[in-house]
């Protein structure tokens, strides 16, 4: 293995580890977002799957925010308004807080191009966050578990 391949592998492993360290934060954010849907009985699983699909397919935070705005704009039952704006705010916060934590860790361990990875990190965090929203919503809706979304299961 040459030096460049070794550095790329080190960077990818560090990136995966740093993103993994943010998962509890993402799950808590997702649970809080899903709580906005507590009284929105008309929200369907397929709508959130479509949101996740849009995020996975586009690989863009701005395109995903645009998809959410479109849903808010066409929503005559007012299902998406509070939830959608909350999610868009969270996407911005992910770009600052969790992405910042990942980049700081990468810099701390000597990854030279850490700042250049910010867009990639934010997109991956967004995709994970929206996946956790999807999971939390399915649980809350099918198991009447909205009251349990705030339960803490980790010792952190």
Account of the 3D structure:
The chain has 156 residues and is an all-alpha fold. The chain is 72% helix and 0% strand. The protein has helices at residues 3-20, 23-35, 45-58, 61-74, 81-108, 118-142. The radius of gyration is 17 Å and the shape is elongated. The mean pLDDT is 93.
Helices, strands, pairings?
Elements: H1 3-20, H2 23-35, H3 45-58, H4 61-74, H5 81-108, H6 118-142
First-last Cα distance: 38 Å
How much of the sequence lies in strands comes to: under 5%
Give unreliable regions as ranges.
none
* Total strand segments: 0
Largest sheet: none
**Alpha plus pi helix count:** 6
Q: Note the overall shape.
A: elongated
Helical amount: over 70%
Order of helices and strands: HHHHHH
What's the alpha carbon Rg, rounded to whole Å?
A: 17 Å
Mean pLDDT: 93
Structural class: mainly alpha
Short description:
The chain is mainly alpha-helical and 156 residues long. It has helices at 3-20, 23-35, 45-58, 61-74, 81-108, 118-142.
Question: Which key terms come to mind for this protein?
Answer:
156 residues, mainly alpha, 6 helices, elongated
